[in-house]
């Protein structure tokens, strides 16, 4: 069968409440051979990052998608839109009117995959461990509003927050809040390598080669108790060096589904003329791409240089020539579909203008052309990244105001270098930890931000971010969120470029492909089953 399936956000949202009513792993259909899923995500244990799968360290979409299958969290985001629902917990909620005290009660008889009981003390240990280790990935900052964690008996966990945080339930759904066994995860150091143990829907067997995880074999955890229905017995996540190799594997039947990251050309081909028996599934996504600046680097230390770049970059041309209908220009860190979004960069700079950029630089007495290097990763966001940066270079060079080099680096080297401030300008993507405007702002602007950026704005950190988190009704946070976005457009510590859709391609005997990814790009392998080819 040849068809293209379009999953509309409204439809996904309507179906999402079914998640909370699901039983445990024993209700999955199971049966059949392992379902093979392809990805271009790379999982490398290196000297700079020896513990890529430790929940206290991992902070990218690929490693989180491994952890979400194996390490259980108190809360979980539903398959579509909506508030997080209890997962390892049977209930959670704020117990005060100020959103500063949050209590969770664990499910009864919850165990790790090895049979050890999961207790409130394990939850406290796991979260306190991540907070105290303060891994240089910056993921611990998601837990920054916690003051203390208290336990009452074996099943009650109480979080006392430093300040009101209406987004806290979302944060408890992220892998950094995953529950780990103290016997497997030492308190004072990260767990190196690719071993992962937890109480989630699957156990993991890692197949590695030369320090790289090449295949993750997920086997249904018979001890799992939680909100999810597991529709298969085994899934193999296979890492490919590039999208072409992954596509060939799908064509040959070596894999049943391919996920991120497909090339724009693959998506166009599959949408127009997919091979017999393959479906392209188009679903909403919240991925964004942006340029990050080391605001201490001499070439871009002056705000005027960053503003001039913002005035020159032509997002429309970038999207149309590189990504086509698969992306849209973005004029804020917050995607257009998220409550609190504001087109702050368009409001500040309007359409691209070399004359306005020249005036900005002249007013600041900046000598032109400004020499700088744009850095990008060669193997993390897809093969189109190189073309994107070639076009960015051309736009800036053609203005006569910049003299730009570009340099591509593998992710395993690129990410640590960016965090250490080795790059003056570099391209990054963001897949949200949870679908709220706070998560498109605080991780870039707050103390201990995941970029390691030296940029700091006291009004944003000390007033606007805390103020926005006090609003349980997120519409009520719009004023403070808009002000943050306006400050970002004025100071340009980052330069948003585009937001993208997301796709999977699956053989048509695979069921659940429409829910293989949620809007935050969470890989939901438990949704997949093997049906009858149509």
Report on the structure:
The chain is an alpha+beta fold and 534 residues long. Helix content is 27%, strand content 23%. It contains 15 helices and 21 strands. α7 runs antiparallel to α10 and α14 runs antiparallel to α15. Its main location: other. It comes from Streptomyces pharetrae CZA14.
Helix percentage: 25-40%
SS content category: alpha+beta
How many helices? 15
Q: Give the averaged pLDDT, no decimals.
A: 91
> Main β-sheet, in a few words?
13 strands, mixed
Relative strand content? 15-25%
Pfam families: SBP_bac_5
Domain Solute-binding protein family: 83-449
Family: Belongs to the bacterial solute-binding protein 5 family.
Signal peptide: 1-20
Layout of strands and helices, then pairs:
Layout: E1 3-6, H1 9-15, E2 35-39, E3 43-44, H2 61-70, E4 75-76, E5 85-86, E6 89-94, E7 101-106, H3 120-133, E8 146-152, E9 156-161, H4 168-171, E10 202-209, E11 212-220, E12 234-239, H5 243-252, E13 257-258, H6 264-273, E14 278-293, H7 303-312, H8 315-323, E15 327-329, H9 344-349, H10 354-363, E16 370-377, H11 384-398, E17 402-409, H12 411-419, E18 425-430, H13 442-445, H14 458-469, H15 478-491, E19 494-507, E20 510-511, E21 529-530
Parallel strand pairs: 1-14, 2-12, 2-13, 16-17, 16-18
Antiparallel strand pairs: 3-11, 4-5, 6-7, 7-9, 8-9, 10-11, 11-12, 13-19, 14-18, 14-19, 15-19, 20-21
Helix pairs in contact: 7-10, 14-15
């Amino acid at each position: 069968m040849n068809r293209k399936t379009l999953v509309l956000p409204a439809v996904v949202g309507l179906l999402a409440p079914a998640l909370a009513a699901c039983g445990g792993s024993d209700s999955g259909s199971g049966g059949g051979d392992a379902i093979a899923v392809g990805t271009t995500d790379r999982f490398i244990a290196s000297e700079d990052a020896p513990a890529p799968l430790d929940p206290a360290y991992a902070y990218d979409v690929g490693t989180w998608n491994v952890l979400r299958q194996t390490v259980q969290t108190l809360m979980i985001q539903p398959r579509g839109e909506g508030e997080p629902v209890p997962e390892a917990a049977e209930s959670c909620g704020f117990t005060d009117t100020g959103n500063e005290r949050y209590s969770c009660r664990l499910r009864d008889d919850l165990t790790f995959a090895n049979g050890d009981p999961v207790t409130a003390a394990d939850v406290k240990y796991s979260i306190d461990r991540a907070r105290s280790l303060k891994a240089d990935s910056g993921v611990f900052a998601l837990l920054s509003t916690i003051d203390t964690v208290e336990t009452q008996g074996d099943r009650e966990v109480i979080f006392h927050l430093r300040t009101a945080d209406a987004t806290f339930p979302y944060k408890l759904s992220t892998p950094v809040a995953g529950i780990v066994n103290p016997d497997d995860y030492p308190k004072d150091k990260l767990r190196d390598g690719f071993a992962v143990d937890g109480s989630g829907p699957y156990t993991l067997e890692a197949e590695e080669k030369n320090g790289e995880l090449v295949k993750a074999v997920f086997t249904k955890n018979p001890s799992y108790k939680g909100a999810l229905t597991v529709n298969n017995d085994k899934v193999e996540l296979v890492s490919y060096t590039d999208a072409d190799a992954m596509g060939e594997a799908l064509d040959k039947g070596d894999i049943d589904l391919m996920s991120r990251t497909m090339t724009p050309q693959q998506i166009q081909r599959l949408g127009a003329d997919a091979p017999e028996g393959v479906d392209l599934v188009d679903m909403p996504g919240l991925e964004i791409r942006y340029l990050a600046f080391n605001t201490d680097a001499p070439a871009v230390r002056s705000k005027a240089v960053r503003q001039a770049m913002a005035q020159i970059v032509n997002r429309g041309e970038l999207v149309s020539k590189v990504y086509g209908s698969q992306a849209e220009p973005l004029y804020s860190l917050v995607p257009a579909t998220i409550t609190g979004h504001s087109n702050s960069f368009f409001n500040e700079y309007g359409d691209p203008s070399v004359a306005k950029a020249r005036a900005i630089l002249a007013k600041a007495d900046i000598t032109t052309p400004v020499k700088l290097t744009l850095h990008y990763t060669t193997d993390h966001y897809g093969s189109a990244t190189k073309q994107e940066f070639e076009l960015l270079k051309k736009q800036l060079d053609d203005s006569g105001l910049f003299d730009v080099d570009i340099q591509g680096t593998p992710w395993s080297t690129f990410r640590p270098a960016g965090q250490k401030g080795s790059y003056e300008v570099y391209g990054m993507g963001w897949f949200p930890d949870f679908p709220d405007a706070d998560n498109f702002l605080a991780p870039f602007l707050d103390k201990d931000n995941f970029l390691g950026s030296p940029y700091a704005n006291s009004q944003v950190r000390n007033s606007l971010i805390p103020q926005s988190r006090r609003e349980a009704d997120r519409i009520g946070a719009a004023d403070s969120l808009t002000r943050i976005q306006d400050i970002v457009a004025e100071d340009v510590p980052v330069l948003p470029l585009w937001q993208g859709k997301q796709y999977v391609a699956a053989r048509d005997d695979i069921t659940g492909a429409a829910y293989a990814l949620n809007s935050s790009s969470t890989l939901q392998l438990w949704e997949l089953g093997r049906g009858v080819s149509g």
